[in-house]
Structure formats: C-alpha cells, structure tokens
Amino acid sequence: MLDYTNTSLHFKKLMDITEQGKNSEVFRAHDYQLDAVIVVKKIKKSDLNGPEHFFKEAKMLYASSHDNIVPIQYACQDEDHIYISMPDYERGSLNKLISERFLTPREIIRYGIDFLSGLHHIHAKGLIHCDVKANNILISASDDATLTDFGLAKYLNLHGFAVADEFYYLTQAPENFQAEEVTHQTDIYQAGLTLYSMCNGNEELKRQLKPFLIGGLFNEDLFKKAVLKGKFPERTQYPPHIPQKLKNYIRKALEPDPSKRYESVLDLLNDLAGIDIPYDWQFLPEKDRYKWSCENDGKTYVTEVTFIDDKHAGISVTKTLNKTQQINAYFRKKVTHDEAFTLAKQALNNKDL
Q1: Of 34, 145, 210, 256, which sits most exposed with the smallest number of CB within 10 A?
Q2: Quick one: which of 303, 301, 305, 304 has its CA closest to 320?
Q3: Can you give the residue range of the structural domain that contains 246?
Q4: Which segment of 11-20, 126-135, 242-251, 310-319 scores lowest on mean pLDDT?
C-alpha cells in the first residue's frame, strides 16, 4: 500500500505584483526552503468549481513545459487557497515594457515569435489559452517572451471545440460574443491583438476605447458591435515605422471571420519570421516633435518631424558617420502635418537610406 505524506511549505510575502494578475493575488515571496525569491499565485478555492479544479491550472502549466512557457515550481494548498509557485521574472511583463516605451520592429517580431512558439506548443497538445495578452507574457532575464497565466485555459474536445467559462471582455474574439464554444482561432485573434498593442502601445488602445465610455460607463453593446464589424481595434492605425508586411499579418490574425484568419499559430509565426527589417527604428515621441533613431552598419540615422504650429511641421532625415552628418533629400523646413508624416513614412520604410 502506498504511503501518503503531508508536508508543509513556508514562504513570506514580500510585495504584490498587481499587473501580473487580475483574477487572483500575485506576489513576490521569499521561499525559506529554497532561500530564493519566487512568485506566488494565490487563488481562492471558493472561486473554483469544486476540488477537481483546485490544481487544474498547475497541472496545465506542468504539462506544457516549454522554453516560452513560464515553468511551475510547485503547487500546494491550505484550507482556503491554492498556491502556485513560479520563478521571479524581475523584468516584469510585456505590458509593462510597452507602457514604458515603443518597441522597435525587430523587438516586436522577436517577442512575437517567442510567445507564439509557446502558444503553438500548447495548441499541439490540444490546449487553448483563452487569455493571450501582453499582461500574460513575461520577459525573462535572457530577454525571451514567455507565456503565463493558464487560469482560463481549456482542453479541446475531439471535434476541436471547448466551452469557455469566461473571457477578459476587451480581448474577446468576435465569435466569442455570439457562442460559448471556442477553438484555437480565439487564441489567434488574441495573438493578433497582442501584436497590435506591441506596435501601437497602450496609450493608443486607451484612446480607441474612449468613445465607448458614455456618462462614465463602458457601453458594452457599442464595443461588441465595433469588434464584430472589425472597427476595433482600428486596423489602419500604426506609427509610420511599422513595416507594411507586419501590418498585413496582424490584420489577417484580427479578421472578424475566423475562417479568414490564419489556420494555425505556426502560419502566423512563420510569416513574422520572414519579415526583413533593414532599419530597426526606435520611436521617441515628444511634445513638440516625433523622433526615430537607429544604428546600422556603423552609421546613426535620425528621422525627425518637428511641429511648428497646429498645421505645419518640418522634417529631416540625417545620417552620421565618424561625426560627419549628412542631411538627405527628405529635408523640408515647412510642410503640412500630413505631408511631413508621408515623407517620414517614406524615409522610415526606405531600404536604401
């Protein structure tokens, strides 16, 4: 007869990590057994549908071991809570990073390939995530993007469907507003929305959500209609330095009709991997000017749009080598804002500056 042993684990809470968890309490802790800082996800048993679901998320994480999936260290319980222990990702989430600055095109593609690799891995195991977003992608010490938070994940049945209990409202795929059954297409849409936010930043998405706030309340019906019609997010809204191919691939992932999206995460991943980025622009917006800079083959390139007034702007593109600066043909002292951004877009996407 097998012997069962009850053991105890001891850790001390250090600080909350509110941006890494929404439906649970997530915090850094000191693990006395390991003498190390860990991250603990604390879930109320009363929020779960019975004992058979207590360790569901922990089991999914353990079964999904992959370089781009956050690993589980252990899971345990007390009378009222489940605890899932994971490594401490000190750099935080992808959401934290895009709240601080704009990503360069190469960063968008590299982080995108990372988290899509993890997503493809769980799809191959018949599992869908159902909550793909920048908050649930952590950046490792080696600068890899890793997928986490399997609290809403589901295993597909033999017909490729699952019944979703809930979704984060703002990242629901269009079909999820109309049916409870979900497929891997839900994750593909959410991956597209995540890539969109990586290109545009959080402030742009907040701007697009403002029209749905009426009288201080979020109008869910208006938002739902906008998602179903493909009006949210705005498919044409991107900074000028984002490559057209990347925009096309994101648009395909965000198709309101699931049959017109990518057939698999692997197809999207392969398309991202094939994008050539000759100039990896860093976008630095300021109050009175927009600036893009990059280094390539020992040269420093800077594109600037300087706002003169409400209607006019100047534009310059400079190349510096050995402290010698050259101003190229895109230079204009005073043009309209639209003309300035048209010239900036041409310069930022020119492969032969």
Answers
A1: 210
A2: 301
A3: 94-273
A4: 11-20
